[in-house]
Amino acid sequence: MGKSTELNIEPVTRIEGHMGVNAKADLDAKKYTDAHVYATMFRGLEDILVGREPADAIWLGQRSCGVCPTPHATASVLAVDMAYGAPPPPLGIGLRNLALMAEEVYDGALGCGILEGPDYSEAICAKSNPDLLAKAKVTPAPRAAAHGYDKIGDIMTALNPITGSLWVKCLEASKNGINMATTLCAKHPHQNNFIPGGIALTVNIPEIESVYVNLAKGIAFTKELVPAFDDLIDFLSANGLDKVGEFPFNFLSYGVYDDPTAYNAKYADMSKWGEKRFVTPGVVIGGKIVTNDLVEINVGVQETVTHSYYNDTVSADFAKDPNGNPLTKDHPWNESTKPVAGKEKNFAGKYTWAKTPRWLDWKNRVDGKTHVLQANPLSRMYVQAVSKKAAESTGTSVKFTLPAGTVVGCRVPGEVTMEWKIPTSNNSIERVRARAYWHAYSAFLAYRMVGAALDLIKKGETKVWNEYRRPKTGIGVGMAEGMRGAVAHWVVMRDGKIHRYQIITPTAWNVSPRDALDRPGPYEAAIIGSDITEPIGAEIDGVDVVRTIRSFDPCLGCTVQVFNPDERLLTECDLDHLHADEMLHQWEHKDDHSHTHEGHAHSHSH
User: Fold this and answer.
1) Is the peptide bond between 506 and the residue preceding it cis, with omega within 30 degrees of 0?
2) I need a labelling partner for 448 at 20 to 30 A (CA). Which of 104, 171, 454, 518 fits?
3) Which H/E stretch holds residue 1?
């Protein structure tokens, strides 16, 4: 062991930042040797939902995040569809898909250009990697004809926050995506028209055409975005940043965008309709696809609390899922949220508000054990590529063609074929590249979905909601994908009310702490062993740590929670006036116990 140093970075900025990192480094070896990542805010939405009408979860559950509310709304409405037995008609499914696609188009531009891209900007690299920047300024950009930047250094300058031209374009593209989402969802963030059995939207051809106008702008933009990031990341990979933030090829994707002709909200059929999703679900371990079965994936989801500020689940209410498959006590249908605050940075004990999701190989396809999986766009693209269930999947890549279209200011009006290829390393910069390609792929899928929606309307299939009769008891799971990765909601309904509700976000998979076997979560594991690329002086800034963390695009919770030792929970979160009177009454009549605030109000404008 050479000269060592320890870094404490809290909060991690340019993200939804209720998170800190403790990292240790060997300065002689220029490697990080250990890391602990911890969430500093308690999320109490799961307990807030208990006792409410299950449909309320669709509106309240998406308050998990102000950046990516529609993936949460999607997961929640799918869970409630299942619990109620309320499948939507084809157009209702298609419009839900299109709403989520619109958000992915917005969120991809935000992630690439505003949140992660600046880590490789001129402004940052001038201090962190000056030799790299000097070389970039004289290195030609091979795809300059597509994006307009002659040198790699010009791309880095264009990513400078506020002043950079690509930074500004990404901000404009993000706004355009939000406009498209707002047309479909009445508002954004926190859309309000996903309902059990469909979507509350009066739709006609002019409205769909309006969506397409914004989509055309997104398609034109992504034809420039992807080649710009391809040039930048190829250069960075060839010049020493390819060993930053590496993680094994262990991936989770729930898949997303249900086939309007296949989805029926039935758990008994989830394996079938899950496999027909436009983006295929799957688990990859050691680079090999383990399963595409959404039921098998669901049963394997586990969440433990060895190093988290929660009490453990003691026993299982459900020994089996509705199909008769075995469930452990750590499956979300059996799990409750029981917060117990502890000491800060007690890395030998409990040190984070994040729980520890793992995936159990319960069918013994690999080893019958639990596995640490990464959830993000690279996971999604990898599963899509190797599964070969979609027309765009080749086995080693995802290949698709964006349509021709002229938009004012666009550089590439013609058709463009793009191909995301499986990288040789799952590192920080490849996670950013995958996000750029996911932006393009989402735009491609949205273009197809617009056409499908128009076809349904022209055929007279304009129904967007199916009437249903709500049962007294029910159980449901909604599994989808947001920009950041796999997101799922689980609901158990008894006497017409929520008995148990659990949410596992993409960031929960990635920010998870050590488990009972002392295996680090993806953030921690990606830092441990990572190269240090910045100059070594008396101290280091930890730029490679934050590049690694931000490559996953973390997003913790977006509410204010209050809890006291008797486990009663109150909230003053952003409910957007939904149930405002009820919440105000509850707050004004709280008891006189001493309360500890575990969060603070904040904006999601990164």
Assistant:
1) no
2) 171
3) none
Distances in whole angstroms, Cα of residue 383 to Cα of each of 255, 273, 285, 289, 394: 9, 17, 11, 7, 11
Distance CA 275, CA 284 (A): 15
Residue 204 burial (CB count, 10 A)? 9
**pTM of the full structure:** 0.91
- Six token digits for residue 482: 């947001």
Q: What share of the chain is helix, strand, coil (3-state, %, to 5)?
A: 40, 20, 45
Tokens of 450: 């617009």
DSSP 107-160: HHHIIIIIIIGGGGSHHHHHHH-HHHHHHHTTSB-TTHHHH--SBHHHHHHHTS
pLDDT per residue as tens digits for the range 236-275: 999 999 999 999 999 999 999 999 999 999 999 999 999 9
Which amino acid is it at 368? G
Residue spans of beta strands (DSSP E) within 207-360: 251-253, 282-285, 288-291, 301-304, 356-360
pLDDT bin (cut points 50, 70, 90) of residue 557 is: low
Determine contact, residues 452/101, Cβ cutoff 8 Å.
no
Residue type, 15: I
b/e burial code for range 262-300 (CB count within 10 A of at least 16 → b): ebbbebeebbbbbbebbbbbbbbbeeebbbbbbbbbbbb
> What pLDDT digit, counting tens, does each position of 139-166 carry?
999 999 999 999 999 999 999 999 999 9
User: Residue 344, SS3?
Assistant: coil
Question: Which bin fits 460, alpha (ψ -120 to 50), beta or left (φ > 0)?
Answer: left
From CA 55, how far away is CA 41, in angstroms rounded? 26
The Cα 226–Cα 220 span in angstroms is 11
207 falls in which pLDDT band (50, 70, 90)? confident
How confident is the model over 547-554, as a mean pLDDT? Answer: 94
Contacts of residue 189, defined as CB under 8 A and 6 or more positions apart, other chains included, come to 62, 65, 66, 67, 69, 604
- Give the C-alpha separation, 38 to 309, whole Å: 11
C-alpha torsion angle, residues 361, 363, 365, 366 (rounded to 10): 30
* Per-residue pLDDT at 1: 60
| Phi, psi (rounded to 5 degrees) for 25 | -135, 145
Instruction: Give the position of tokens 């159980």.
Output: 475
The DSSP secondary-structure symbol of 313 reads P
Per the listing, tokens 């800060």 go with 344
Instruction: Of 159, 54, 168, 62, give the one whose Cα is nearest residue 117.
Output: 159
Separation CA 491–CA 477 (nearest Å):
6
Question: Can you tell me the distance from the alpha carbon of 41 to that of 178, in angstroms, rounded to the nearest whole number?
Answer: 27
Q: Which two tokens stand for residue 465?
A: 């909601």
Contacts of 557 (CB under 8 A, 6+ apart): 18, 41, 43, 45, 64, 65, 599
